[in-house]
């Protein structure tokens, strides 16, 4: 059984009755346990809305969101979100931020201390336990955000463009770190991004969404082993296909984005 | 070889530190000279300094040492400010927790802020008579407004993501308030504290003049009307400034260094 199921979900902002904005329309999606699902789409396509639904921050106007077979009704630690800007508490240290969620979960102190140490090691932030978020680089802040989400011991990690604000090199390094963490922890991950390359590099499957109202254009299963190269022909073909799906054109037509995969010519 | 350009720049910087003091003293001397020419005994800086040193060495003023007067004023201020601060927290927590309560409470607080501190004199006297409590009451009502208003603004400016993180982890309303909303409102709170501290210190001195109870800097100043000991009043004014400066630059700066500066939450 799928860990996560969305069944014909519709979401309208400002009320469906008075002609509100349709954010999501007829979304059906299954996410398997342990899967790394990437979701791409243009901005405003409802990618974040999709995550907010799974997280339980908002309710669907129609359809159902099931987690482990039960309807999602409210936010919970089993569905932890990593936000784009990290959303760390500036008044807490790195260790304090990770500890915060466990304190709220009312877990015993020795366990919290142990998990905290393990996670700081997992995300490679030894020596920064007592630093405050503003003293860290953007990449380091996202590592803390990932550690804090993992501290809740979630079954699925919901990542909302977590590397969107990082420079290209940091972004690539964190993508590799994420894959390592995913392998080590075997969590299910739903990774929302607007970056085709990122989706192609990370996803077991890539869900391509359309412009508002958000619908699923296609869920592309990625038939590639890991570790993937960022430049091999397979991934270039995938990227090219994703570009076409996003743009609504057929392969063979000229790429309307003019972002034809440079590496394909190598 | 020393940096040639550093010399004049250092000199200018030192000059700029000394300049306001020199300007102040110069104006003081000039006014004293003019007023004395009209036959009134206007104390100059030198006389005042001598008096200050004598007072610090133990010369009594109106039956008490200068330390007792400073202590009385600062004590009233501390008690009143603490009262206003606690009251502001209660108001801010209630208004922060519920939009309805905010609509009911905050208009009163805004109105409260429009009332100048001294205008509370009749209310204070009717409530507490000519007593220490009357002074403290006036401090409480002046300190409360700016702190409460800023704290509510701080709570309202909480980031949605922060609330969501807490909710995911299963935090209840009380925990969210205590662990997310209140710490998040500290940068705003600092502005409120600064305004509240300044306003209430001015009110202490003014209230002591009207409702005063035999001791305190404001009381001493107003008494010089009858004793004609104007130099003592000038000493008290200097001490009022010094207390304000110490609280602002020693106390407050440290408080900021330990909180908003350390957290990188300084508001521009």
- Identify the overall geometry of chain B: globular
**Mind summarizing the main beta sheet of chain A?**
6 strands, mixed
In total, how many beta strands of chain A?
10
**CATH topology (fold) name of chain B:** MetI-like fold
Oligomer: heterodimer
**CATH domain topology of the largest domain in chain A:** Rossmann fold
Report the uncertain regions of chain A.
none
Ends apart, CA distance between termini of chain B = 39 Å
How are the secondary structure elements laid out?
The complex is a heterodimer of chains A (266) and B (268).
Chain A: E1 4-13, E2 21-31, E3 36-40, H1 47-55, E4 62-67, E5 70-71, E6 79-82, H2 94-104, H3 109-122, H4 138-151, E7 156-160, H5 168-185, E8 188-193, H6 196-202, E9 205-209, E10 216-221, H7 233-247
Parallel strand pairs in A: 3-8, 3-9, 6-7, 7-8
Antiparallel strand pairs in A: 1-2, 1-4, 4-5, 9-10
Chain B: H1 6-37, H2 45-56, H3 66-97, H4 99-114, H5 121-128, H6 132-156, H7 160-168, H8 173-184, H9 186-210, H10 217-227, H11 230-258
Question: How would you sum up this structure, described in words?
Answer:
The complex is a heterodimer of chains A (266) and B (268). Chain A is of the alpha/beta class. Chain A has 2 domains: 2-78 and 156-218, Rossmann fold, CATH 3.40.50; 86-153, no CATH class. Chain A is 33% helix and 23% strand. In chain A, helix 2 (94-104) packs across helix 3 (109-122) and helix 2 runs parallel beside helix 4 (138-151). The N and C termini of chain A lie far apart (42 Å). Chain B has a single domain, classed as Orthogonal Bundle (MetI-like fold), CATH 1.10.3720. Chain B is built from 11 helices and no strands. Chain B has helices spanning 6-37, 45-56, 66-97, 99-114, 121-128, 132-156, 160-168, 173-184, 186-210, 217-227, 230-258. In chain B, helix 9 packs parallel to helix 10 (217-227). Chain B is globular. The interface between A and B is medium-sized, with 28 and 22 residues.
């Amino acid at each position: 059984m799928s860990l996560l199921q969305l069944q014909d979900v519709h979401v309208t902002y400002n009320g469906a009755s008075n002609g509100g904005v349709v954010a999501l329309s007829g979304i059906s999606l299954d996410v398997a346990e342990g899967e790394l699902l990437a979701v791409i789409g243009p901005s405003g396509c409802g990618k974040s809305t999709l995550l907010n639904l799974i997280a339980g921050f908002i309710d669907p106007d129609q359809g159902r969101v099931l987690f482990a077979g039960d309807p999602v009704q409210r936010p919970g630690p089993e569905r932890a979100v990593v936000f784009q800007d990290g959303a760390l508490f500036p008044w807490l240290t790195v260790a304090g931020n990770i500890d915060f969620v466990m304190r709220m979960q009312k877990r015993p102190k020795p366990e919290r201390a142990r998990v905290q140490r393990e996670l700081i090691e997992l995300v490679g932030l030894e020596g920064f336990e007592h630093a405050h978020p503003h003293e860290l680089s953007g990449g380091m802040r996202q590592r803390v955000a990932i550690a804090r989400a993992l501290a809740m011991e979630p079954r699925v990690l919901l990542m909302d463009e977590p590397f969107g604000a990082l420079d290209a090199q940091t972004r690539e390094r964190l993508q590799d770190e994420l894959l390592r963490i995913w392998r080590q922890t075997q969590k299910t991950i739903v990774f929302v991004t607007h970056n085709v390359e990122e989706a192609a590099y990370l996803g077991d499957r890539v869900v391509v969404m359309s412009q508002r109202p958000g619908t699923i254009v296609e869920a592309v299963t990625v038939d590639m082993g890991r570790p993937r190269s960022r430049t091999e022909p397979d991934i270039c073909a995938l990227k090219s296909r994703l570009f076409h799906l996003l743009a609504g054109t057929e392969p063979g037509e000229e790429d309307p984005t003019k972002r034809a995969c440079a590496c394909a010519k190598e | 070889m020393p940096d040639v350009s550093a010399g004049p720049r250092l000199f200018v910087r030192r000059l700029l530190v000394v300049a306001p003091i020199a300007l102040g003293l110069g104006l003081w001397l000039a006014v004293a000279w003019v007023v004395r020419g009209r036959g009134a005994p206007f104390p100059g800086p030198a006389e005042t300094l001598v008096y200050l040193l004598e007072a610090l060495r133990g010369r009594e003023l109106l039956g008490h040492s200068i330390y007792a007067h400073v202590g009385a004023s600062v004590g009233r201020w501390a008690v009143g400010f603490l009262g206003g601060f606690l009251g502001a927290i209660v108001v801010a927590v209630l208004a922060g927790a519920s939009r309805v309560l905010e609509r009911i409470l905050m208009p009163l607080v805004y109105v409260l802020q429009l009332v100048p501190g001294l205008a509370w004199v009749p209310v204070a006297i009717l409530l507490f008579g000519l007593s220490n409590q009357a002074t403290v009451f006036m401090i409480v009502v002046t300190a409360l407004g700016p702190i409460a208003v800023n704290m509510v603004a701080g709570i309202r400016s909480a980031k949605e993501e922060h609330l969501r993180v807490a909710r995911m982890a299963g935090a209840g309303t009380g925990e969210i308030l205590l662990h997310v909303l209140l710490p998040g409102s500290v940068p705003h709170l600092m502005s409120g504290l600064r305004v509240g501290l300044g306003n209430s210190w001015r009110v202490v001195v003014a209230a002591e003049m009207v409702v005063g109870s035999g001791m305190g800097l404001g009381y001493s100043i107003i008494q010089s009307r009858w004793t004609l000991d104007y130099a003592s009043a000038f000493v008290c004014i200097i001490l009022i400034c010094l207390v304000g400066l110490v609280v602002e630059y020693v106390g407050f700066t440290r408080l900021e260094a330990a909180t908003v500066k350390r957290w990188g939450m300084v508001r521009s």
